[in-house]
Amino acid sequence: MSMLKVDNLNVYYGSIHALKGVSLHVDQGEIVTLIGANGAGKSTLLKTLSGLLKPKEGTIEYLNDSIAGKQAQAIVKAGISHVPEGRRVFADMSVEENIELGAFLRKDKAGIQQDFQKVYEIFPRLHERRKQSAGTLSGGEQQMLAMGRAILARPKLLLLDEPSMGLAPLMVKTIFQVVKDINQEGTTILLVEQNANMALSIANRAYVIETGRVILSGTAEELHASEEIKNAYLGGH
Ligand code: ATP
Question: Which of 17, 69, 133, 226 has the least C-beta neighbours within 10 A?
Fold first, then answer.
């Protein structure tokens, strides 16, 4: 059974038709990646799934419930967390307070404490800076912080928008390992990535989006082997 099923989704920004009949599904336990050039509509899709944008047409079923057009808060409560692109931290709050926000729906104090330790083990830099205001972190550090918050949220479905953006190569590796770990601990993941090579290396399946439409889908191995994908998204390798 699919955890998430999107059918014929159409989303507009005023007169701009950003998603044109997108259909896809994500099964429980999977890592599914969305690949596409700048402006293809990847972020628009994640924003629509998390309730930040409302579709004009189409359905979104999540755990057998229709969530299209629901309030973002209700969607978070239902177990979907969205880590948006770029620096989305609360600048005036400390690093620690920002991470803690991820746990706002949880009551299991011991579990929260454990997850805090885990975040600090994965990202020692965040531990060093835990009392510092989040606005003073570098772009890459803010990206780590957003991931840390997501770990504390323990969602059923995690929507990740370009988690590797702006990170040094070593950190990119760490982030992808973290994504894999989160998945192995039971979180289903929908991952938007410019780094198609890395994304395909950890994903089960992938969808390719071009100017608002899904133009190709398949298992990660299939897409990795496809000449079309190699030339367009994997730098010809
Ligand atoms: P990138 O990889 O560059 O982040 P993307 O695939 O995530 O790209 P989207 O951000 O979803 O692309 O944008 C899809 C299209 O919608 C683009 O043509 C973009 O210009 C347009 N768009 C996005 N946000 C808005 C907005 N707030 N108002 C008007 N048009 C928008």
Answer: 69
- Ligand 1 atom at minimal distance to the Cα of residue 192: 7
**Cα–Cα–Cα angle for 84, 221, 29, nearest 5°?**
50
Spatial contact of 32 and 16, defined as CB atoms under 8 Å apart: no
* pTM, full prediction: 0.92
The ipTM assigned to this model is 0.94
C-alpha of residue 46 to centroid of ligand 1, in Å: 11
Q: How much distance in Å is there from the Cα of 40 to the middle of ligand 1? A: 7
C-alpha 39 to ligand 1 mean position (Å): 5
- Cβ-defined contacts of 17-24 (< 8 Å, 24+): 17/212, 18/44, 18/212, 19/44, 19/45, 19/48, 19/55, 19/212, 20/211, 20/212, 20/213, 21/58, 21/213, 22/58, 22/209, 22/212, 22/213, 22/214, 23/214, 24/207, 24/214, 24/217
Q: What is the pLDDT of residues 160-209, one digit of tens each?
A: 999 988 888 888 888 899 899 999 989 999 999 988 889 999 999 999 99
Quote the CA–CA distance of 225 and 237 in Å, as a whole number: 10
